[in-house]
Amino acid sequence: MARLRIGLLARLTMPDALSALATAASWLDAHGARPIVEARCAAAAGLGTRWPTADRARLATAVDVVIAFGGDGSLLDAASAVAHSGADVPLLGVNLGHLGFLTEVGRDELEPTLDAVVSGRTRVEPRLMLRGRVERNGSIAAEHLALNDVVLTRGALSRMIEIDARVGEHLVCHVKADGLIVATATGSTAYNLSAGGPIVHPSIDAVVLTPIAPHTLTYRPIVLPADSDITLQPDIEPGLSDIVVTFDGQFGVPLTQGDRVIVDRAPRELRLLRTSSRSHFDMLREKLKWGHG
After folding, report:
1. Distance between CA atoms of residues 236 and 252, nearest Å
2. Within a 13 Å sphere around the CA of 165, how many CA atoms are in the beta-carbon half?
């Protein structure tokens, strides 16, 4: 029987994450699995050639499971790598940061979690991903995938943006705001929540269109079917270049006059790996400090 191949990557600037990655690699190697470490992480952790390595773009294609160490940002970066590789492998996050809605496993749960992965005592939760495209002069200037959100926002010194938002052929609104968020249910507890949007259970096949600090308070978040084709067209003055569309806060594209941002359902879902019986409501109570009474 072939050894289970586990891809490991961590936030490069977080020593605790790199240390946990090295610990995990040693444990996995000693318990019958084959760790494969993202190349830059192996160098940053001082692992040398102790275990095989792969670059970020190829890691997911060389393994059966990917584990990311850090915070939610690290998991989102790993999710981007998995999604853009085209590999259909599950992803697990280990939280060495603070809040961590996506990275449910803590440092003190690392070894029991690795044991669950190696022994197959896990479950997979499919999560909707978004595809965002920047249409410029009749062609696609950029395309990227996102697990949490696609956000159209202004720069720190720019004025409020005017945006036409459409679903299919229907005009939803012409909004004056600091920006607009298109969030998945997974991303509803991220920027969407900070902007006053609703928390959406991850099993619900929906997206949320949420304005950021709208000029008129009657503009409210809208929950839409996940299959909606959403078009955002900002009114950009000639030469203005500080309006940007971002994908999971990991990748950004500056917009120019006439650009449109088209957001729809990605062709493939991301598979998050879960090893505990902790429910979504357990997570909300823990992370948001809701009462237990």
Report:
1. 17
2. 25
- CA–CA gap between residue 87 and residue 293 (Å, rounded): 43
Tokens of residue 98, six digits:
């603070």
| Strand spans (E) along the chain | 5-10, 34-38, 53-54, 65-70, 91-95, 105-106, 123-127, 130-136, 139-146, 149-154, 161-167, 170-177, 179-184, 206-212, 222-225, 230-234, 243-247, 251-254, 260-265, 270-274
Output the CATH code of domain 130-265: 2.60.200.30
Q: In this structure, what DSSP letter does residue 208 have?
A: E
CA 64 to CA 89: how far, in whole Å?
A: 6
Whose CA is closest to 59, among 83, 26, 82? 82
Chain segment 244-290, per-residue pLDDT in tens: 999 999 999 999 999 999 999 999 999 999 887 778 888 888 778 88
Count CB atoms within 10 A of the CB of residue 238.
Answer: 7
Q: Which residues does the annotation mark as catalytic?
A: 72
- Whose CA is closest to 193, among 101, 76, 71, 282? 101
CATH number of 5-127+269-288: 3.40.50.10330
Domains 5-127+269-288 and 130-265 share a fold: no
Give pLDDT tens digits for 64-98: 999 999 999 999 999 999 999 999 999 999 998 77
Q: Any idea which residue has 């192996």 for tokens?
A: 42
Given the structure tokens 């996102």, which residue do they identify? 146
pTM > 0.70:
yes
Beta strands 206-212 and 243-247, pairing class? unpaired
Domain ranges, ordered by start, for the chain: 5-127+269-288, 130-265
